[in-house]
User: Fold these one by one.
Assistant:
Number 1:
Amino acid sequence: MSIQERAKAAAENVQGKAQEALGDLTGDKDLQAEGQAKQVEANARNRAEDIKDKAKEVADAVKDKARDIKKAID
């Protein structure tokens, strides 16, 4: 898990929420859409980090299992 990527995603999400809120207040549909798009991108970044974390967990589990099998054979 990259803390930096998660922090960037959180910052982008906050910025998106602020843009969307400002768009709501001013009636600026483009600003609302930009804010919503930033929030979607932030969520996608978080999901990508979740996938990376899960892949690492699986790889570590496979490594551990292979190590166990090797020990049992030796």
Number 2:
Amino acid sequence: MQSPRLPSKSHLSERKRLFYGAVLSAVVGLMAAVGCGGSSNGDNSGTAGKAGSSSTAGSSSSTAGSSNSTAGSGNVAGADGTGGTTPGAAGANGDPGTSGAPPAAGGDGAGGDNAGGAGPGPGNPPPMCGATGQQCCTGDVCSAGGCCVNNQCVANAASCGGNRGMCAAGACANCGGNGDACCQGNCSAGFVCAGFGGGARCEACGAVQGVCCADRTCTAGTCVGGGGGGTARCQTACGAPTQDCCANQQCGTGARCVTGKCEACGGDGQACCGGGGGGAQCGAGFGCVANKCEACGTLGKACCPGGGDGCPGALRCENNVCADCGTAGKACCTDGQACGQGSSCSAQMICTACGAANEACCRFGNQLFCGQGLNCNQAEMCVP
């Protein structure tokens, strides 16, 4: 009996190749499907869910992980651009995909346009008088019940020094009151130091027709008249703005006499008040420019007359205008010294820090120099 013929070895190998080829095609198709599913979310989606381990031709299923053909489909971004939150569907034998990334912070987050900016700039600076240890304010006044002694404020309930006693509610026990010796040139509120040397005594002031108190202040009316000797008097019927000029064409503080009438002066935009010796005067913070008082001492304003260069702080007076120049990082000044101490003017006309260790050598004319203990090397740098 003849045995049935078996397929040749070459035919069997051909069938195996076809079978494994089909499996390989299925795997490739599955991987392509997973890749498309992950990239279809677009820029606004969260991170695509991972396909899970079943993406490798699922060993427990003859179908090559077909249940995982749409990986992470729940991660499609919503219309508002938030990331997906539903985990991606994984194959039967795989781990669930990770959820999409959380949505980005909204417009009110830190640094956003809606974040509150810095508050408004500081208001008027605190007064530099009246507190304990500070100079006395206008009229020899101190705050919080303090006493004015030698033009300096002593705290309430503290000693006025020497044999002057304790300060109580603005008055020292043994000086400053009516008929008492002056507290080294000062008196309590309502009294003024009159006389000279050891004979000076405190007398009542500020009332109508009475002598003016310290700093030409009055409790009634305005102070009119000359300076020392008690000749300046508090007037109520003349001397104030809109009132008639007092005797000898005089007006009170903050006013000037014009054709028999007193008009306000010394304020912003007002005429300059006449000063002693023909000088012109304006109130604090104003300068007399072309016989008009205008704000001075701030950036872009006129330099104030008086001490220093008329521009406080780091500002410099440039052609009679306060300019922000001459300090490290700022433009070089063109009027006077180009840069302040510790900086020098570079070729770019910027003040650059100099003179310290590992900084450029400071330049003054043709000379180079460094801070104490440092030398300027050939590279024009300050080194130990």
